[in-house]
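Let's practice the habit of predicting before peeking. Look at the sequence and jot down your guess about where helices and strands might fall. Then scroll down.
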Amino acid sequence: MKFNWDTLLDYNVDTNKDRILAGANILKSNVNIGSGDVRIPGFINLDIDADGKKVDVIAKAESLPFKSNSISFICIDHVIEYSENPWQIVEEIDRVLKKDGLVYVSSAFIYPYHPKPLDNFRFTLSGLKCLFSGFEVLKEGVAKSAFSSSLAVIVHLLASIFSFNSLVLFKFFKIFFSCLLFPFKYLDFFLMKFDHIPRNIFSNSYLLLKKIR
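Done guessing? Here is the structure:
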């Protein structure tokens, strides 16, 4: 029986990533690119190394080891900002994805530099759309709004000031201020309810996309 994509979208009435991916596990040939230790039911885990991770396939996102038009759903959660060539990743996703296949992609916007080992790009929501311009946007949104994203920067700033150029102190104060200021992040729950206020400050953005050709 042909799968109805609208069933998946109706199932995910909100924009929660976990629900989107949970709805996808009824499909076959799903891939989680840059999986790390995260295991999503029904997904093949792909990463650049196995190093104690729950990885099924070792490969780069820029060169996916799958046949063309063979994958139903791809999750690429906070991966493209580390790549040296995110455009090549998009080309590979387009190649291996079936027609009408889905992509969940997210990326950092306002967040401190964190190389693993590289940290090359930041994307606004419109920037992600430009990158995936050949796909149809089904859902879009931002996560970790003004308070969370601002606190991430403030914590690094305060840790830098109080570390007195000591890496040990920096790590200590980063944990200290993260714990101290953590409750303020819950203010985002109230801010996100104000639909008419522009969400110009956010940690990351995401898209749920469909391949249309």
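How did you do? The radius of gyration is 18 Å.
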